[in-house]
Structures are given as C-alpha cells and as structure tokens.
Amino acid sequence: MAQFGFENDIHSILKLDMPITNAPMARWQRKASSSNASALSPGKSANVSLSTTKTPSKTPGKNKKQTPSKMGGDRFIPTRNSKQMDVASFLLTKENETVDTNEQNATSENQKAMSISLNGYNIEEAKILHLGGKPLNAPEGYQNNLKVLYSQGATPASVKKTRYISSTPDRILDAPELRNDFYLNLLDWSSCNVLAVALHNCVYLLDASQGEITLLMKLEREEDYICSLSWTKEGSYLAIGTSDCQTQLWDVYNQKHLRSMASHTSRVVSLSWNDHVLSSGSRSGHIHHHDVRVANHHIATLTGHSQEVCGLQWSPDGRYLASGGNDNMVYVWPRVQDGPANQAVHCWDEHQGAVKALAWCPWQPNILASGGGTSDRHIRIWNVNSGSCISSLDTQSQISSLVFAPNYKELVSAHGYAHNNVVIWKYPSLSRVAELNGHEDRVLSLILSPDFSTVATVAGDETIRMWKSFELDPIKKKTKERLAKSTSGVIHQSIR
Question: Are strands 194-199 and 171-174 parallel, antiparallel or unpaired?
Fold first, then answer.
C-alpha cells in the first residue's frame, strides 16, 4: 500500500491540468496593456470620455484577434500516464531482487547457443581489438558470400614464395689425385643417376641412388691422364678422352671397353654426344665428328679455333654445336646433314678470356650461355636465331662452368679465382639468387643431376660436393610426375 501511495503523490505533483499562476504574462496580454497605455497619452485626452461611452465597432476583419481561451496554454506539455510510471517502477524494483542462479545459467546457455547458430561464434567472447595470437578460425563448412572490393594487402597470387636454399652441401666426397687443370672436363652425370669422375688416369663411377663406388677403367701408362668424360643420352655408354690423343668408348653395365678412336694429334679435352655422333675437341683447335656405329668413325672436321677447344655442347634439339676455346672465341656449328660441316653459323669474339663454360637453355633451344675466364669474367646470353647478344653480366670471377636449372628456370655458374664458389642466377634477369660457398680452391666443373634437383661440383681442393638446391615443392613435384605418367602412357599406346 505504501508503494501505491508513493505513486499517487508523484502523479499528483506531475499533473499540470491547472493553470500556472506564476507564469510570465502572455504576449496578447502584454499587447493589450500597451494599447491601453497609448490611449491615455496627453494629446488625446478629449476623446477618452467619448470612446469610453461608446461600444466598440464590430467591423468584420478589423481588430479581430484570436486569443487562447485559458491562461497559460501557450506551451505543449506531454501527458505522463500511469502506465509509464508502472513500467519504470517495475524496472527499478527488479534490479534489487535476487536472481535464481539456475535460471540465469539456463538463459546464458540459450543465448550462447543462439549466438553460435547465428554468428558462428559466441558474441560475448568475441574481441573488438585482437593484439596477439592467431585470428579466430571460421567453423568448418562456413562460406563467406561477401566480395572484397578493395584491399591494401597483397593477394595470394602476387605473393612471391621464396624457397630455402641450403648453404652447405648435401654430400662431400674425396677426390684424390684430381688434376687441377682449368681446361679439362672431369665430371659428368648420366640419365641413370650415375656420376662419373676422372682422377688422374682412372675413371670412377658413383651410383648416386645406392652410394656405391666402382672403378671403371685405368690407363696403362702412368704418365697418361684422363682429360674429358661424356655420357650418352641413355646413360649406357661413356666416352673418355685421354692425353694420348685417344677417344675411348665403354659399356658401363658390362664394364667393357668397346673401342678406341684415334684421330686427334693432341689431348682430347672436350666431348659431346648428339645421338650416334660423338664430337671431340682437342688442344690443336680441331673438332672431330665420330660416327660410333661404323668402323671409319671420323666423318667430319671443324677448323675454326686457333687454340685448345675446351668447351663443347650440342643443343637440346641437336641442331647446333657450340664450341669455346682458349682463343676467346665462341662458334656455333650446324649438323653435318644441314650444311657444310666446316662452315660456322655464328662466330662471336666478345669474350676477353678463354671460353670453357657453355650451356644451352632446355626450355628455349635457341638460347646459349657462355662464360669467360679470368681476363673476361662475363656471362653472355646469345640468341642463335638472330646471332645477337641478349644480355651480359660481369661476375667479378673466373667462370669455369655453366648449367641451366629448369625446375626454377635459373642459371648456375661455377667460379675459380677469386671467389671459388657457385652462384645461382635468376633467368633471364640474371639477378643473384644464392651463393654456395665451401670449396677451398677453384671450382673446375659443374654438372646437374638427371632429376634437376642437385648440382655436383669438383674443385682443385680434391673434393666433390653435391648441392641439393633445386628440389621442387611437393605440389609441383606431384604435378610433374602426373604429367610424366600421362605422357608415357600416350607413348606406350602409340607403340602398341
């Protein structure tokens, strides 16, 4: 009862139905009083008595004023009914009541479940500012239908993923009695994953898959030595150039010496295969073509270089033979059946040092890379179709070997004085990607593995180092293997 009495008192205080006695005078009252004061001015005293005795004229449209009917009615005051007061009183009294904990827990659980179903997360646990830690993960199966119109962050397609390149070799092998001669080519890697290395007058084979090392051959005379090695495309046969002007052919699987081909007058320092034709370069400056299928193997002689031919490489498509020599020249020769054998397609003299390093681009057969010796130290990229030099780079070091790495489209160079290291360049920009340091003497040769993931280097410090720098990531590797399987399946079907 006390509560309702309190409400009635408040209601009576707030009720404004009665006129306000202490309110200011209304505007129409102020105007009427001012008009009466003007009628009593001194200049019009004679007419006052007459006007007071007469009734005012009721002429339509004159002196007609609409005035409020009640005093104090010039402001609008909202009506406050009893229902609003009842609601306010209920809310005030409910704050002081004790709430049942069970009922509160049930309500909070219901709100949490409803929030999760609507928003995907509990809204009471969400944070407006998240200063650390991982962001909240969307629930499984959640799809956001909103489209991003603008973003300052880089999109996933434009983000460049950098791979990790180890600065230490994967394997290190001792190579005792290795000849520290810049002009020799003492290392080659077959398509069957067998690495051949020449140590003085012996040739050793390393099975890179099993790790087994076998002795293939040894020259009879101790003063003779191995000058060059080259595998056939199938990896079954190995050509060996010697200091006694011989070119030997060996069956690796049977470890059998097949034949010796004598045609040069000086040591054979470079070899390169093109199907059944073996090309050899010697200190005399001559290049000989050998058809290993016939008894009269010497089928052509290329005479262009004036000094030792230390670099020799056939292009991937077999159309051109590139040769580099100690006379600082680079020649490009055609196949025997495509034109005169002794007429070069191109002859470049831009290098200022011996050109031993030659490499054809596997994904662009018309691109040739060449590297100069100590007096030059430049990598030059040539377009064989146009005969022009596309780009040139000063490496500040002697270049002994070049190879293209197709997995990441890069160019790898081996260096002698003064850096004695291996450098990976991005092609075609020739920007430096990484340096592989570890050799204590000049790097003599560099060769790429058949899966294009590893490079092997041999140096004057009598060590062979294997650098696993070009491994594909698992996704790219699976895609490449799947493509290879599909291609091989098509080949088998066509054969059958």
Answer: unpaired
